[in-house]
Write a structure and sequence with these properties.
homodimer; six-stranded mixed β-sheet; 25 strands
C-alpha cells in the first residue's frame, strides 16, 4: 500500500509544486524552490541526476557511471521543503490536478514537466539493436561493452577481412554527441589501447563519422564546423558528410550520398542522430490538449506554460519554444537549466500575486570537444577552437558537475588521463553475469 | 573463425605457460613471468582484474565498479611475452596438453589454474534469488540495487509493519565479508542517508548479522572476535551467533538457535555464508583424476601441482593445501598472491632444470574492517583493534590496489568520505533499463 506524498488540499496549506524529471530542467527548478514557502515533490524514475554531457566518456571508458551521476536525495537533502520520490508517471489528471504514477497519485497546484528527450530512429526502431543510442547510463555501458568486445573479437580473428570489419566503428550523426563520441573513440583506439593487444594494432581501426547534412556540427557556425572537422581528421576520424544511412543490418550499413548507394561493413555502429521528446508530451496532448511538433515536443506559451493550463509548465528538451531567430531553442543543457530556473521563479512570483516576463534564453555560447586538447567554442561575441576552447570546455563542465565530490574526482581523473592517455574504466559488465562453465556444471 | 593463440609446439620454441584466471593468483603469476624467457597466455572470462576485498564497498555505494577493477590488458601491457585472452574455459585435454575454450584451444607446456571460488548455498541454490552473494561486480550492483530500493519502497509505504520489514536487512554469515558488509550497511543507513528521506528515518533500520558459529570472525582469535562484535554493536548492528538459517522465502527467514525456531521478517537478505570452488575443479577431477574436498577444491601436492600431473598447477581459492596447523589454507587474497608467485617461480626454475622447495605460506596477518574507523588486525606476533587497525587496513588495501590511478582515486574518495560520511556511488542501475511510459507509448 502506498501513499500520496503531498499534504492534503486546502487554501491555507502551502502551494504544492510537483516537478516531474530530475534532469537539468527539473533539478534547477527544485533548487530554486528549495527552502521557499512552497511544498515541492520531485518525481523521477531514477534515483539519480545524470550529467548527460559526459555520458560519452562513460561509453568510451574514460569515466565510471558513479562519477557523472549524483543521488537526487543527496543533492537536495538540505532543502527541507523538498520530497524526492522515485516513481514513474504514467498519466495526468488535469481536472483533479494529480500526477498519476504507476503506484500512486501526487496532487499538485503547479506542475513542472521536465522529462526530456530520448534518441529516435525515424520510424526505424529496429535499428536500435544494431546501433544503440546514448541517453542513459545503461546505454553508455552497452556502447562500452560493444566497443571493447569488438577489439577482443578482432584479437581472436584470423580472417583479415572479418578482422577489419570488427575494427570498423561507425558513428551516425555529427551533432555535438556524435563529434564527441567519435573523438573519444579515436583516442581510445589510437592511443589508449596501444600495446595492449598482440595480434591486432588498434590504431588501424577505422572510425567513421556519418552526417546527413553538408558539415559536422550543423548547428554551429561554418568556420567552427571546419575547425572541428580538421581536429577530427588529426585524430584519424574519417568524416563523411551529405551521407544518409538508408538501411542497417548486423555488420552492414547501406549508405546513400546523392545518387550513389554503397554498402559499408562495420562491426560496431553507434547512434547519435535522432532525438524525440519523451512520452509525457503525448500524455499532455491527450489530457491537456497540448499541441506537439514533429519531434513530439510540446509547443508552449512564451512563459513555458501549456496553452489553457497556466498551472502546467514545461522545461527543457520537452518544450518547443522559439528563440529570437524563430527556430526552436536547441535541446542542450543550458536551455534546460535556464528554463528550470524560470519556471520556479514564475511559480514563486505567482504565489506572491506578481506577474512575470516571458522566458528569454541567454545564450552564453556553445562548446563541443574533440579529443584530448581540441574543442570548438562559440560564445556569440567570439568564436575560437583548439586548446583554449578545450580548457573552456573542461572548466564549464567541471563547474556544472553537480556533486562536489564528483567534480574533484572527475577533474583529477582528467588531469591524470591527459598526461597518460589512460582510460581506466574499461570493464565489460553485464547484469546477472554468470560464468558459462558453472552453469554447465551445476545441478 | 578463431585461432589457437600460442606458437606451435617444438622443443626450440619457448616454454608455453597458460594461466587460467586473472584474479590474485593468476595475475601475480603472470607478473612474475613477465619479460622472462617463457611465452605466457593469460585467459580470463572477464576483461578485468577485480579487487575483490573491496567489492562490499561497491555493494554499499561507497565505490564505483571502475575504481576496484583494472583492465587485464592494461595491467600487463608492458610484458611483451604475455598475451591476454578473453575467453571461457570449458574443458581440458591433459593428453594433448590443451586448454579447451568455448571458441578455440590453447596448447600449454605448463598450466596454472587459478579460477577461484564462488558463493555457495549448501544445496539450497534457490536461496540465491532471495539472498544474493558477493563475488562479481554484477553481484555487488545487484546488492546495491536491492539495498537502495528497500529504502525507496519504505519511504512510500504507509503500513508500519511492512515498512519495518523493508527497513530490516539481514546478512547471513559473519566471516570477514559478512562483517565488512554489515558495518558498511550500518554506516550507510545510520549516517550517510540521514536527512535524505521525509517519511522514514533510515537510522531506524535493523541491520542483523547472523552467524552459525558461536562468534563473529570465527577464523580469528577470540579476543578479536569480541572486539569486532563490540565495534559492530557501536554501529547499531545486531549480531546473532549460534543461529542457522533453515529456510528462506521472500521477506521471511526461518532461523534456528539450538532447539528454538523462529521467523524473521526482512525485506533484504544478503548472503556471505558459503563458498565453493569454481567448476574447473570438477574438470580437473574428470580429466586429470584430481581429488576434490567437500568444497570442491583440488587437493594438491606440496608444490601446488595436481597429483600425477606436474605440468598442471593450482593456485588460490581453488587449491586445497594444508598449512602448518593441518587446516587448509584460508581462501584469502594473500594466499592466492603467494601461490601465484610460487607457481611462476616453480615453472621458471623447472625450465632452467632446477628443483624447488614446497610452497610455504607466510602469514603476514589478517585484517577485517568494521565501519569507518574500526577494524581488527592479527599480525601473528601482535593483535590489535580500533583506529590503528583501521589505518593498517586502509594502508594495506591501497598498497595492493592494482592500477596506480585506482589507488589515488580510491584513497582520495575515502579521505573525503571519512570526513563527510558520504557514499556517492548510489545509483540504481539495470541492464537495458527503459522507461515504462515510453514502452507503453511507442508503436
Amino acid at each position: 500500500m502506498t501513499q500520496a506524498i503531498s499534504a492534503g488540499p486546502g487554501s491555507l496549506s502551502p502551494h504544492r509544486v510537483v516537478i516531474l524529471g530530475g534532469g537539468f530542467g527539473g533539478l534547477y527548478a527544485a533548487k530554486e524552490l528549495g527552502n521557499r514557502r512552497v511544498q515541492v515533490t520531485l518525481v523521477d524514475k531514477r534515483n539519480f541526476h545524470l550529467f548527460q554531457p559526459l555520458l560519452y566518456q562513460v561509453a568510451t571508458g574514460g569515466l565510471s557511471p558513479g562519477e557523472i551521476a549524483s543521488p537526487l536525495r543527496t543533492v537536495l537533502k538540505r532543502f527541507e521543503n523538498i520530497t524526492v520520490l522515485q516513481g514513474e508517471a504514467v498519466d495526468l489528471d488535469v481536472k483533479e490536478r494529480k500526477l498519476i504514477l504507476a503506484d500512486g497519485d501526487v496532487p499538485y497546484d503547479s506542475l513542472i514537466i521536465a522529462t526530456g528527450a530520448s534518441h529516435h530512429y525515424f520510424g526505424r526502431e529496429h535499428w536500435e539493436d544494431v546501433a544503440p543510442g546514448l541517453k542513459t547510463i545503461e546505454d553508455a555501458l552497452e556502447m562500452r561493452r560493444r566497443i571493447l568486445r569488438a577489439f577482443e573479437a578482432a584479437e581472436r580473428e584470423t580472417d583479415p577481412a572479418r578482422r577489419q570489419t570488427l575494427l570498423t566503428f561507425v558513428i551516425v550523426g555529427a551533432g555535438p554527441t556524435g563529434v564527441e563520441l567519435a573523438g573519444a573513440l579515436a583516442e581510445l583506439a589510437h592511443f589508449s589501447l596501444r600495446h595492449e593487444y598482440r595480434h591486432i594494432d588498434p590504431s588501424q581501426s577505422s572510425i567513421i563519422l556519418l552526417e546527413g547534412m553538408e558539415r559536422v556540427l550543423p548547428s554551429y557556425a561554418p568556420d567552427l564546423s571546419a575547425e572541428a572537422e580538421a581536429a577530427l581528421a588529426r585524430l584519424g576520424v574519417v568524416v563523411r558528410t551529405n551521407t544518409m544511412v538508408t538501411d542497417m543490418e548486423e555488420d552492414v550499413l547501406t549508405l546513400r550520398r546523392g545518387d550513389q548507394v554503397e554498402q559499408l561493413a562495420a562491426g560496431t555502429v553507434l547512434w547519435a542522430a535522432g532525438m524525440k521528446a519523451s512520452a509525457m508530451g503525448q500524455v499532455l496532448a491527450q489530457r491537456a490538449g497540448a499541441e506537439l511538433d514533429k519531434m513530439g515536443r510540446v509547443i508552449v506559451e512564451p512563459d513555458l506554460t501549456v496553452p489553457g493550463h497556466p498551472e502546467i509548465l514545461v522545461a527543457g528538451d520537452l518544450a518547443n519554444l522559439s528563440g529570437r531567430d524563430g527556430q526552436p531553442l536547441p535541446g542542450v543543457a543550458p536551455v534546460a537549466m535556464q528554463q528550470g530556473l524560470y519556471t520556479a521563479r514564475l511559480i514563486l512570483r505567482r504565489v506572491q500575486g506578481r506577474s512575470s516576463l516571458p522566458f528569454r534564453y541567454r545564450n552564453r555560447g556553445s562548446l563541443a570537444v574533440i579529443g584530448r586538447h581540441a574543442a570548438v567554442a562559440d560564445l556569440g561575441f567570439v568564436r575560437f577552437g583548439g586548446f583554449l576552447a578545450w580548457l573552456a570546455w573542461i572548466f564549464v563542465h567541471i563547474m556544472y558537475l553537480v556533486g562536489f565530490e564528483n567534480r574533484i574526482l572527475v577533474f583529477s581523473k582528467w588531469a591524470y588521463d591527459y598526461f597518460t592517455h589512460n582510460r581506466g574504466a574499461r570493464l565489460i559488465t553485464e547484469e546477472n553475469w554468470r560464468p558459462q562453465l558453472s552453469r554447465l556444471m551445476q545441478p
